[in-house]
Fold:
Amino acid sequence: MKSTISIAQPPWTGLGKKLESATRKALHEFNMVEESTSIAIALSGGKDSLTLLFLLKAISGRGFPPFKLTAINVGGEFTCGAAIGEDFLKATCDALEVPLITAKSTKTLDNLECYSCSRERRSLLFAAAKEAGCSIIAFGHHRDDSAQTLLMNLLHKGEFAGLLPKLFMHQYDITIIRPLIYVEEEDIRQFAKQYGFARLTCRCPVGQASLRKKTEEMLQYMETLYPNARANIASAGLMYGSNKAMHM
Structure:
């Protein structure tokens, strides 16, 4: 049975306007699409990647040149995404007139492990993007992801590094962009509920006990002591990353 699709598009409510404004700010401030307007979107089918798809489609040709969007989904027996059926994703992309490319992960329960799984999935995404003629691939990472990553890098590796909003991957000759880098996860969650595409975000048995999950719990505790901790950590990471990039 096919899933009922829900499409988010303008005219927005106040929340939609807030998310679009934050996305436009990131696209503009970090020159995310100055090299090309052919953009691949890593589409898991979760709230983050679907929000990214809807926002980039809405922004295309409005204050920016028209984007040539291509959605790429990596499926498989286990996935970090939302376990959304291919029929749902295809129907969603068809409604938006965005082509969808699918790839399959080789991971099974016997060889499931976060690091190797992440590397394989990225390789599949990059290869599909290049084959589609896209030199840019957009990920749905948001402000909360950046704060978590900064804490993980700082405590585990002694590196003060969050998620960069724009990063050229020399090995793959492709640029990663993160247009939702200013967007709070809770706003995405409410946006997804409002437009009817909120779903479970992860069916990976390894991910449920991951270091990122534990770091999120740490952030929640920190916010009981310092209410702006998450926002300040993410902001510091962006500031440090931008300054570092300027001096490279």
The first strand starts at residue 38 and ends at 42. The helical segments are 14-29, 47-59, 86-96, 114-131, 143-157, 185-195, 211-225, 229-246.
